[in-house]
UniProtKB/TrEMBL annotation:
It comes from Streptomyces bohaiensis. It comes from the Bacteria. InterPro entries: Alkb, AlkB-like, AlkB-like_sf, Oxoglu/Fe-dep_dioxygenase_dom. Keywords: Dioxygenase, Iron, Metal-binding, Oxidoreductase. GO terms for molecular function: dioxygenase activity. Its cofactor is Fe(2+). It holds the Pfam family 2OG-FeII_Oxy_2. This is Alpha-ketoglutarate-dependent dioxygenase AlkB. Residues 127-229 form the Fe2OG dioxygenase domain.
Length: 249
């Protein structure tokens, strides 16, 4: 079915449990909050340790990224932009952790009302400590992957800004089916944890030109907020902790 923006008034989008432990929260961020988050993303994108092109085995990702709190690179975390300009990663702001916790609370209510799986214990204040900001210019996509570099089972919270996209949420076993496609629009949040924490997911395409005009963004920005479960101060320099795992460009 076409779920274009013109249908929004006729068929208001409600929160949905996409898989056990995976909840879509449409219009979670009001327009003002979206602008606030976008303004922050623009600051974070500036050097040092700003937006960069990510090299993976077999090429470069079409999505450009910047990390907060810790720097994610294929396929580990570090304290500095080891595959960028080498500068210390920008700090993770406390307010963004609070936004993530609020989204988890909202998603928990949705999951409970549906009688489904929750996310385990609510993350404590200050527990969210890293974020990955993804910028999708027209034509960018992200292949099927799992978020494996964190050592915490806490739910991942994703906030979307700008152009809508198709968000493909699969299973924990393989990159293949079954999966479910959800349209994520500007202001939507998506929370995945519990039994869905290690599920494969992807962004097969964005829908160029669908960003709310007032936001003033060409393209799509996604901010995923996570609990790293890592204390890199006590780990070896560079902080590589995860096995080499492919995240397709
Ligand atoms: O852009 C998105 O909605 C998903 C991003 C994602 O999966 C990731 O950063 O690991
Ligand atoms: Fe991901």
């Amino acid at each position: 079915m076409d779920t274009g923006s013109q249908d929004q008034e006729l068929f208001p989008r409600g929160p949905a449990v996409v898989a056990p432990g995976a909840v879509h929260l449409p219009v979670h961020l009001a327009a003002e909050r979206q602008s606030e988050l976008l303004a922050a993303c623009r600051r974070w994108a500036l050097p040092p340790a700003g937006l960069r092109t990510v090299r993976v085995r077999g090429g470069v990702m079409s999505v450009r990224q910047v990390g907060l709190g810790l720097h994610w690179y294929p396929y580990a975390y570090a304290r500095t932009a080891v595959d960028g300009d080498g500068a210390p990663v920008k700090p993770f702001p406390e307010w963004l952790g609070e936004w993530a916790r609020a989204a988890v609370r909202a998603a928990t209510e949705v999951a409970a009302a549906a009688g489904g799986a929750g996310f385990g214990a609510d993350p404590a204040p200050g527990e969210y400590d890293v974020a990955l900001v993804n910028f999708y210019p027209e034509g960018a996509r992200m292949g099927m992957h799992r978020d494996l570099e964190e050592r915490s089972p806490a739910p991942v919270v994703s906030f979307s800004l700008g152009d809508a996209c198709v968000f493909r949420f699969g299973n924990t076993e393989s990159r293949g089916r079954p999966w479910r496609d959800t349209e994520l629009r500007s202001g939507d949040a998506f929370v995945f944890g519990g039994p869905a924490r290690l599920a494969y997911h992807a962004v097969p395409r964005t829908r160029p030109g669908t960003a709310p005009r007032a936001l003033g963004l060409t393209g799509r920005v996604n901010v995923t907020v996570r609990v790293s479960g890592l204390d890199l101060a006590n780990e070896r320099e560079g902080g590589a902790t995860a096995e080499q795992r492919p995240r397709c460009p």
